[in-house]
Design a protein that fits this description.
The chain is of the alpha+beta class. The chain contains eight helices and 20 strands. The longest helix is centred in the middle third of the chain and has 18 residues. It is elongated.
Length: 376
């Protein structure tokens, strides 16, 4: 298992920086996700790491070995691309064995390694089939088998499950997780699906416009985003513009902010905004509690329930707070039997779930899981 360290990577195409000063660590044996919208620079970053592109600046280390000058075929990287890249004229066994043939391994060794890999990925019975005779999950397993048959030090997957159905994606993730665990290979996954990243990543890096915006454990990024971009990317949230009034005296980073819903106590990250500074508040829908019982120290405000949307085990409550402000709340179905559209509610939220983000942001509509605009 290797540790991959990227330091200040830069790659320009024309006058555009596709990768702009990226520094990131892939932990040994871990599964690191790079999440970002289309055009964020994820694929270019992966190609730099794999040796398919040369960086304009920066350094790439595999453990203590600098690899910028090492050719792609000598880096020990296995890749699975979004289109999988299966050759239509080759059978499964020929496809999986091809990397070993290129490395001029003996026929006996090739047979053993290919058979071992096909069995591990449950496609040994498909050895003679060609890609057009396989289901989408079987094609993914074939591409994954080709990537791991060489026992790579680093495995890179570029959104290979994007086109699969939800059920097929879940089955394919089980296969990938099992292979990853058994091989212990350091893995980098590129995706634009936040649900996938939050559920599967050991370590998550959010990328936008060629830069890493925030990196850390998925739960940390979801609960403590560094800015509005990360907050919105990782799931629905209520956004409110506000102005800092004061800081708490307990040293826990608490900030009192004036918002359209009234004064809210929240928590800010490093570099606390000074009194009077404009900020944006982020409150996840599931962190809001409904009911008259308010724990000590929690924020509270009244609201009117306008609409209930059934989401299976969850119900989405579309409400209006003070100043007719739109608020989105998510509650378990089992905790919402007595709720009726048009009724008055008391909503509350703990200060640690009121995230104070730097700067003023033009917030959108509640239908997007986002509050409206401006401090009155």
């Amino acid at each position: 298992m290797i540790r991959v360290i990227l330091e200040g990577l830069v790659k320009h195409y024309g006058g555009i920086a596709a990768v702009d000063g990226v520094s990131l660590e892939l932990r040994p044996g871990g599964m690191t996700f790079v999440l970002g919208p289309s055009g964020a620079g994820k694929t270019t970053l992966a190609r730099l790491v794999a040796g398919l592109e040369a960086p304009d600046d920066g350094e790439i280390f595999f453990d203590d070995r600098m690899v910028q000058a090492v050719p792609a075929h000598e880096r020990g990287v296995g890749m699975v691309f979004e289109d999988l890249g299966l050759w239509p004229g080759l059978s499964v066994v020929e496809t999986v064995g091809y990397p070993l043939r290129v490395r001029k391994q003996s026929r006996g060794e090739r047979r053993y390694r290919v058979a071992e890999t096909l069995t591990a990925l449950r496609i040994d019975s498909l050895a003679g089939r060609r890609p057009d005779q396989l289901t989408p999950p079987q094609r993914f397993r074939t591409a994954l088998a080709r990537a791991v048959v060489t026992h790579p030090e680093l495995l890179i997957l570029d959104a290979p499950l994007r086109t699969l159905s939800p059920r097929a994606r879940e089955e394919s993730w089980e296969d990938l997780r099992r292979v990853h665990h058994e091989a212990g290979v350091t893995t980098m996954v590129l995706t634009d699906d936040p649900d996938e990243a939050l559920a599967q990543a050991d370590w998550l890096a959010v990328m936008d416009l060629g830069r890493i915006v925030q990196a850390g454990p998925p739960q940390e990024l979801y609960n403590r985003p560094v800015d509005v971009f990360v907050a919105r990317l990782l799931g629905p949230t209520n956004l409110l513009q506000g102005q800092v009034e004061s800081h708490g005296s307990d040293g826990r980073g608490e900030v009192v902010v004036r918002t359209p819903l009234g004064r809210l106590i929240g928590q800010s990250g490093p570099g606390h905004p000074s009194p009077g500074a404009p900020v944006t508040i982020s409150v996840r829908p599931e962190t809001l509690a409904v009911g008259p019982t308010i724990p000590a120290g929690w924020n509270r405000f009244p609201a009117t329930l306008e609409r209930i949307v059934f989401r299976g085990h969850l119900r989405q409550l579309h409400a209006r707070g003070p100043g007719d402000w739109p608020i989105l709340v998510s509650v378990l179905q089992s905790h919402s039997h007595g709720l009726r559209e048009g009724q008055s509610l008391t909503l509350s939220v703990a200060p640690e779930h009121v995230v104070v983000l730097p700067g003023k942001f033009a917030v959108g509509k509640a239908s997007d899981g986002v509050g409206g605009a401006g401090v009155p």
